[in-house]
Amino acid sequence: MKIIFVFIAFFAILFSCAPQQKVPENERIMVYEKNPHYFAYKGAPVLLLGGSDEDNLFNNPELMMRNFKTLEKIGGNYVRCTMSSRDSGNVWAFAKNSDGLYDLNVFNPEYWRRFENCLHEAAARDIIVQVEIWATFDFYRDFWLANPFNPQNNINYSTENTRLQTEWPYHPARKPQPFVFSIPAKNNDMQVLQYQRKFVDKLTSISFKYGNVLYCMDNETRAPAEWAWFWGNYVLQKAKKSGIPVLLTEMWDAHNLHNEEHKRTYDHPELFAFFDISQNNWQEGQMHYDNALWARELVQLHGGVRPLTNIKVYQRREHGKPNDPFVGLDRWWQNIFAGCAATRFHRPTGGTGLNALSQKAIKAARIFTNAFDVFSCDPHPELLSRREANEAYCLANPGKEYAVYFPHGGNVILTIENPNLRMQENWFNPETGEFLDAKNIMSETTIRLASPDTLQAWLVLVRNP
């Protein structure tokens, strides 16, 4: 019997040490060649729709599986994965010694097992995971006091041979801490940087095995630009050496996309293959939509067309106003009609997470966008007239099909490129996830679109039957 156990253990070790087979390039998430405003996955264009009840799902295994199963059921395929450990029940990336201090040369296998399990379970359901490598808030205020990278918590360095301090009681938006100045272009703090590299090396040794991963360097950061560029280059070069194509972005803190911070992303297409505009989701109504279109045009002027993503859609409002889930819902739908590649409900309480409202929206959006060729369409606000601000938004392939979103119902004029064709007007109720009976119409130069009511949101398809 002992001999059998020895053989089992031997082969288990052999198998675990065997090199992992690379996912073929055409089965990885990539920019869609026919319309680079969107992604493609496993060779087909894909619209990323998501929501989850936590941002670091990998570190909450039970919640993660509940969210994954729900997303699979309703057609969701997009989650966020901050590499964070600051919540109750989470584990940190490094192992502790018997004296209670961390050793940054030794990883905690449970942390990395959870991470790989997240990517594996997501891949099994064709869910795309946007990994945020540096979980910004883990390195500030009370969370920093428990962080293994804090000099007082590890055996590897101290405040005497690094630039780090044991306390950093500031909000990330107020005062970036020395941890993000370790890079050669700033403090060149090699004592810290060597362990930061070890962390990223370990992360990518796992994530490169999966084709369903997008990469973001930080979460709403105010770190110096050089920090983002350093880690972008670092991950990109590692991927190239491994023969792995990867897509990267950065998320800056500024709520206004016109802020110079965002220039650090869209001005560097050689690093950042897509542009996360999540902080635009602090804006409301027409301004929210207009800023997204501005960003869409901007990236085209700075390196060519790239996908726009929204890993965080807030229900929060600026200036101390109370949360409003329907403001968040409008932002989420607007992102689709602004031609964004991805939109996800932020976790509670900042967003609605994966509650009933979010689930209904994801399911409805998947049904609606599967009913026409969304990947051949672009935003066309100019096709709508007699329209009030935030009344209606148009996504269209002019001459073929037109989709219009009404946040609160409405009555507008749609200009048709090919008049005198037999067209079909088909209203969709996002509350029920169902189309109403289609109406055949003979198109002229324009068509009047009047929603069934103004009590709720409505969508409509106009196209050749």
How would you describe this structure to a colleague?
The structure is a single chain. The chain is of the alpha/beta class and 465 residues long. It folds into two domains: 20-370, TIM Barrel (Alpha-Beta Barrel), CATH 3.20.20; 378-463, Sandwich (Immunoglobulin-like), CATH 2.60.40. The protein is 29% helix and 21% strand. The protein is built from ten helices and 23 strands. It has helices spanning 2-17, 61-74, 109-124, 141-146, 190-207, 225-242, 263-266, 285-301, 325-337, 356-369, and strands spanning 30-31, 39-41, 44-46, 48-51, 78-82, 94-96, 102-107, 128-134, 213-218, 248-249, 275-276, 308-313, 342-345, 378-379, 384-385, 393-397, 401-406, 411-415, 422-429, 434-435, 439-442, 446-450, 458-463. Strands 14, 16, 17, 19, 20, 21 and 23 form a seven-stranded antiparallel sheet that branches. It has a four-stranded parallel sheet with strand order 4-13-12-11, covered by helices on one side. It has a four-stranded parallel sheet with strand order 5-8-9-10. α2 (61-74) runs parallel beside α3 and α8 runs parallel beside α9. The longest helix is centred in the middle third of the chain and has 18 residues, at 190-207. The radius of gyration is 24 Å and the shape is elongated. The model is unreliable at 1-20 (pLDDT under 50).
Keywords:
disordered N terminus; 465 residues; Immunoglobulin-like; single chain; TIM Barrel; 29% helix
CATH class type of the largest domain: Alpha Beta
As for the number of domains, it is 2
What's the helical proportion of residues? 25-40%
- Whole-Å distance between the termini? 70 Å
Largest sheet geometry: 7 strands, antiparallel
Shape: elongated
Proportion of beta-strand residues:
15-25%
Runs in which pLDDT lies below 50 for 5 or more consecutive residues are 1-20
Rg result:
24 Å
